[in-house]
Amino acid sequence: MNAILDNPIYHALTTNHLLFSKGDENIKYYHREVASFAGMKTYTEADFLKLCEQLPDNGVFIVFSPQTLTIPKPWKLAAEIDMFQFVYEHNFAPQQQLEITLEDLNKEHVEEMIALVELTKPGPFLSKTIDLSNYTGVFENGRLAAMAGHRFHLGNHIEVSAVCTHPDFLGKGYAYAVIKEQVKRILAKSQIPFLHVRQDNLGAVKLYEKLGFTIRTKMQAYVLTK
Fold this sequence. Notes:
By secondary structure, the protein is α+β, with helices and mostly antiparallel strands.
């Protein structure tokens, strides 16, 4: 399996997402309106300190690593999240459930998308996160019931992200449908789908396994603030 997935944020920002990146050769981070993620080439103390200089006082940076990181001062560790990194290993596009209608989401939907993310907490979603592309959703009675989209794009891997369903619409297969649509679109680009999920989100873990994803590695997310 491609080792660039061990450092997905850094490699996304030095390849396919160079357009969204700021920083230098050793530290990279997304434009603040797009995402709160940052990556480093080697995660040295010097690089942590250099990254800290780039953070607004009221902001956070989120870094991923399969190894335990020592977070130096003046950083404060706001949260540490145990995750699994899943990779899709089938070679066919799953068929869409015809009874569920999906709609492409655009900038007109951002306010409702942010509200859904704040309610369900799948991960950060900011005012220009939608620029990372391919967000699709399910609407019921005019309300956004579920959604998913693309996030990190590194090498030939594209991450499925922002998978969430409003609590009022659980149990209807909407999450299954939006993830299948993301997988289909990624495979149509001759790319490999992957994703991250909290280890304690057992329902999501089972769903991803049902859809053909397998665990590649454990991954830690570190939410850093000054």
